[in-house]
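Batch job 17 of 40 flagged for manual review because the log was empty.
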Amino acid sequence: MTLTVTVAPAPPAAQEKAPPSGWRHRWPLLPLIATVLLVGVPSDGTGAGAVFGVQAADLVSGAAVLACAGHLLFLRRRPLTPAAAIVLGLPVVGLALATVTATDPVAALPGFVRYLQIFVLVPAAVLFLVRDAWGFRAVTGALVLLAAVQGVTGVHQYVTGSGASYMGQDIRAVGTFGPGDVMGMATVVGYGLVAATAYALRTPAGAPHRLKPWAPLTAALLVVPLTLSFSRGAWIATAAGGLAVIALTGLRQAVRALAVLGAAGVVLVGGFGVGSEMISQRLTSITEVTSAPDRSVNDRYTMWAAAAGMWRERPATGVGLKGFPAHRDGHASIGLSAGSDTAGAGQEFRRQPLLSPHNMYLLVLSEQGLIGITALAGSWAALLVGGVRRLVHARARGAAAVDCGLAAVGLMTWQTVDFLYADIGGPSTVLTGIVLGLAAWWALAEPERTTAA
């Protein structure tokens, strides 16, 4: 099946109709903003910060979905456009089939609910509740604020030696996510850095003059905690997202931005020596993952092979949602270790089991088969391609919300690249739904919504 996303050209900025102002019309954004900010509630991997076993951010994201339903039922607001309904609803096909064909459908049901939340309901809620560019900027502003708070926490952990254990020292920046979710802070900071870069390169229309220097300054400062996270996957994803934003702003701005980034890197790492030796080793290890992989990389390769084996066993629908852990040992080689060691950041030593392949595409392929990966990856591809096309049109016609387009495309690029090295799991997972919703708003919303300043 070929899915075509038709992107209507945005009207000229001069013909835009000003959206309603005041919090009377903005209150539906509150659940989305609260969802983003509550992701930072401290967690140690033992359920701290959860209510009845559910993270606070996930509960509030449910409130956002209910607010959506309330608008549809009581205010008779128009639902999603046909294109948006197809793109966001497509993953349901693979999810439903993977659940009903699973070896244990009851065990797969929680996975169905989780996937439905992250990849369908939360993105649809964002698309529905964000009514204009102001709302988009408010949600991405919350992402940047969360990234700044987590970044400050992470740098403090590195400086004081109170972070997660890394190479025998408690210096790894993990923010409030704890050593059990070392990717949490890196993910949040990566999102914030990409969004801040977009607003630094294309200042939002109507922004106060005194606020304009904050976007580039924030983007530059967020490089520090991202670096101190020692997360190779987050580094690669952020580089890809940032380069996508830079490339889409135009040649002249791209050259200037790359020059500034190069100078900042020299100052931070070369001038101040921010973890220069360990960072150098970590960067070098990226090019050595095939010739001399460390234990974590070897485990990852082993789990990737196991995921591929599960798919070959059931190529159409996979082994079922939440089925990877149960089928892992039957497909993994003896080279797989018992788990990863975690410690530091206020937590005692623990052995964390390896329950996923740390590659979202292979996880979906193994658990949902070709049908599931086609539906999910097709949805993501439609959002990315549609976002780039609309951004090109918006730039050509001088639309006022190009900054939103840059942020949306950058964040979507970050997510699709990061999925090569990570999958969903942990408190920060709900932000994946927020990011997909922001990308959907830009790519699929009606033109008058995406061009209002």
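Reviewer: the log was empty due to a logging misconfiguration, but the result itself is present. The mean pLDDT is 82. Unflagging and moving on to job 18.
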